Amino acid sequence: MNIRQELERKLGMEIDEPKIRHLILIDDIHNLSTDLSSYTHLTIIGTSRKKKISLSNPQFIEIPSQEPENIQELLSKFTSSESKATNILRFARERRRKSLGSIEEGSNEPNWNDLKIRIIGTMGKFGSSEQKCGQLIYYKTLSVVEADVCLMESDSRGHLLIAVLCFLTIQQNGLNEIDLRRLLADEHALLPMGIRRNYRNLPFDYCAECYGHTNPQILPIRWYYIINRIGHLLIAIDSDDNHFLIPAACQRIIRKKFLTKPVHLEHFQKLLTSFYSTKEKL
To answer: How far is it, in rounded angstroms, from Cα 190 to Cα 268?
Structure first.
């Protein structure tokens, strides 16, 4: 079976090009500003969450919406409580409140997707009210991610969680567990002063203890806390060494909140550069 036949079998559609020379996959193709009609030598497969779009050249893969049964099951998984998931769904069906703090105005219809379910379920697990969790579904995915990140800022000073997300945003190829644990070993130096000042009055202390002597790492119990808190955002691409990435929506929010200023970006880049130079010498 050649490449064309294999693609047609998996996509359930015929590909017009008699011979595939270049194949491009484009997510959210309705946001694309380039006219694709002139690229006749390309086979373009696009995905879009909008029901009506004006593009006609690419072949589209429909992204199915979550069925209510799947939503209930996934929410139960991330809230660790079936009753809490049921209550969140109940509040989501009720009329949306006009205000949810400073979060931007959302849509009038609930819009479920996998990332929203994971975030809302986790927020419910860590203490957000079921009513707020249910109402968040009416807001854009980026707004839901931002709400979760805002909660992280006050979780045990937030420096560990924010630092991990910043490292994974800058290092777009991802980082494995051992590298992350070594990067987090010196908690005092994790965040630049411009971010750290936000936490100076909170009653949490940095941990001066490290795990290991030759290659210090963050304590295992603190790493367990990190995984337990932001595991819903981590994409494991290698189960052997726990190599992690984070979703693009999360990267956008982290860049907006913490990496806009060059001095903040340089701080994390220097930590990564120093870490890799030390790693090469070992």
So the answer is: 8
Q: What is the DSSP string of 29-42?
A: GGG--S--TT-TT-
Alpha-carbon span 34 to 24, nearest angstrom = 14
Q: In whole angstroms, give the CA distance from residue 280 to residue 269.
A: 17
DSSP string spanning 71-107?
HHHHHHHHHT-HHHHHHHHHHHHSPPPS--TTPPP--
pLDDT for 63 beyond 80: no
pTM: 0.73
Domain ranges of the chain: 3-62, 68-144, 155-281
Q: 160-196: buried (b, 16+ CB within 10 Å) or exposed (e) per residue? A: bbbbbbbbbbbbeebbebebbbbbbbebeebbbeebb
- pLDDT attached to residue 102: 43
